[in-house]
Amino acid sequence: MKKNNNLSTSPARTAATKIRKSDRVTIGMDLGDKTSRYCARNGDGDVLVEGACATTRKGMAQLFEAMPPCRVAIEVGSHSRWASEDLKKLGHEVIVANARQVKLISQSSRKNDKPEAEMPARLARVDPGLLRPIRHRSEEAQKDLTTIRIRAALVEARTQLVNAARGVAKAAGATAGVLRCGSDGYGKAGGAAGGSAGIAAAAGATGGIADGKHQGV
């Protein structure tokens, strides 16, 4: 049975082999939602290898785990937090660039993935400070911030639902007491007087409108 040699000829293995033969390697990456492009340069600034990998933990590991420690420059974004943490665990030096403060990146006229991976590599090789590097929040701080954002989104959604229910109830002829009922009253059985009846009427009106049975629909 013929042995599968896909691993030995994979792009990731080829890239790792080329990088091992050079010193002071700097890699620039453009992190996309599905695919990320990379550009590796040696100490003299020459391009060693260019390619792409899947923007997943597995895809990044397959590319970088076989490489010797390198300097990797990425732009801050939705994937930069977990990507930088994973790369550091693999022994690489990671620079997270603030692209908005780097005009060579933010104002680039060539809007495609290749130069966006190439420019961070160039700048990081010469002087990492040119990338205006940032530091991500700690894991605990990020969890707390995520909790706050989720709660704010839920409160906003509840407010919109209550306002929508009031509007439909008003059109269905609900009493003033129902319309003045707070958001807590809509969520409790036996809240404001007539609240259940008003919302039931609103629901009935909504169903009628959806069915096209009301006049003017």
What does this protein structure show overall?
This protein is α/β, with parallel strands linked by helices and 217 residues long. It folds into two domains: 121 residues, YqgF/RNase H-like domain (Nucleotidyltransferase, domain 5, 2-Layer Sandwich); 73 residues, no CATH class. The chain is 48% helix and 14% strand. It has nine helices and five strands, in the order αβββαβαβαααααα. A five-stranded mixed sheet has the order 3-2-1-4-5. Strand 1 and strand 2 form a beta hairpin. The longest helix is centred in the last third of the chain and has 33 residues. It starts with 10 loop residues before the first helix and ends in a 6-residue tail after the last helix. The relative contact order is 0.09. The N terminus is likely disordered.
Give the arrangement of secondary structure elements.
Blueprint: H1 11-20, E1 26-30, E2 35-41, E3 47-54, H2 57-64, E4 71-75, H3 80-89, E5 93-97, H4 103-106, H5 113-126, H6 139-171, H7 176-179, H8 183-186, H9 195-211
Parallel strand pairs: 1-4, 4-5
Antiparallel strand pairs: 1-2, 2-3
Helix pairs in contact: 2-3, 6-9
